[in-house]
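Lab notebook, bench 4. Still working through the backlog of constructs that have no structural model yet. Next entry is a single chain of 308 residues. Request: give me the structure tokens for it.
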Amino acid sequence: MTWQTVVTEPSELGESPFWHPDEQMLYWVDIPGRAIHRCNVFMGTVQSWAMPSEPGSIAPARTQGQGSGLVIALRDGIYRVREWGAELQQIMGAGHDTATTRFNDGKADPRGRFWAGTMYEPRDKSVAELFSIDCRNSLVPAVERKAGGAIIANGLAWSPDAATVYWTDTPTHTTHAWDWDADSNAMANRRVFHQWPGKPTGWQFGMPGYGGRPDGAAVDVQGNYWVAMFEGARLLKLSPSGELLADIAVPAQCPTMPCFGGDDLCTLYVTTARYNRPAAELQAYPESGAVFSMRVDVPGLPVNFFED
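Model written out:
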């Protein structure tokens, strides 16, 4: 398996990639760059759209079954746009202090709700939370707090049978799983899906002994959980029981999130970061911040659409 560079122009912190099946385009965000990008991977062309604040995550959206724009988690709330470049319409405002907290990792679930977690930027308290926003049956969104007790929300994903939801707290190197009822949106039986070793005190780039911490994730049709290991220069594939199946080196020290795309969903994409990284790391990994792809044998799950 060999990585190809899909987008050479680097993001500061690329995140939240998804493959749009109708448009045949790859979307992702640059969080500190305050931009949403999309790429026609066949032509190699990239479009960029500036945001008023940091976009933590995005998902494709549709209205009454018709594809229609995006849902976007910005620092201060969740927004809906009907088409590329259109006016931002706020669905819900943030319940957090935007001076210290912003929305981060998020996705639509298999029933069309949008889920978004928060990130507590001082990183000295476990106050980050996870919310679901349901706009399917009412003009007023139904907002539920689904989990909490984290520092940085990441790793959100669902199993192929929509019976399990995954969520990660990156600084504690922990991914949890819950039993999930898709129709009622109820979560139960919280458990540790995988616990990674912590970052050794004093570790710096170039030192041995650290494999990174879990960031964004995606799931394939067999239920395997693919997770980007930030500062680990690798992407891991875990079985539905949490067993390590593959450890794939990535040409950037800080991969951030994978997704599956292409007509057969057998192209694996991964976003990466270069924001605030040391000079020695960027010299060793000059394409940090680029988007990479490789072909895989098992297809991934298609992206879920937010519905309203």
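Notes after review: The chain has a mean pLDDT of 97. DSSP finds one helix and 25 strands in the chain. Flag for follow-up if needed.
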